[in-house]
Each structure stands twice: as structure tokens, then as C-alpha cells.
Predict the structure of (4Fe-4S)-binding protein.
Amino acid sequence: MENTKEYSNGEVTIVWKPEICIHSGICARGLPSVFKPKEKPWINQHGAPTQDITDRIDKCPSKALSYYMNDKPQANG
Ligand code: SF4
């Protein structure tokens, strides 16, 4: 089973798969108020508006980060 962590702000759920993350730091550089690699938990899902979070997740090169909106069924892939 793939290890998956989820972080919900009530509107969007951030999904992170640590085994896929290549630690490029793109998420942290783009949105440091949410993605904090030096902290635990490293994702603060309340650190930015949902739109900013989803825009940044779309830029994750490895697709270790994904998300689903809480009012819609989760899309696979
Ligand atoms: S952008 Fe994606 S691959 Fe890069 S550190 Fe963040 S989660 Fe990992």
C-alpha cells in the first residue's frame, strides 16, 4: 500500500505521497506559508487560500502532491 497523507482545510483536501516526492522544493518556494519542509506536520493547509494551494499543487513535478475538492468525489489519477 502506498503511503498517503491527507490535509483538509474543509474546502480542499491536500493529498501527499511521501514515497513519490522528489524534494524539489517547488511547493515550499512557491507557497512557504503552506508547505514547510522543516516543520511537522510539514503542510499547513490553513496557510493560504484554497485557490493558491491548488495552483501550487498543480506545479508539483512528481505528482506527489494532489488534491480533491471536498464537495466532489475524489478523482483517481
Ligand atoms: S513540489 Fe512535489 S516533489 Fe517537490 S517537494 Fe513539493 S511535494 Fe515534493
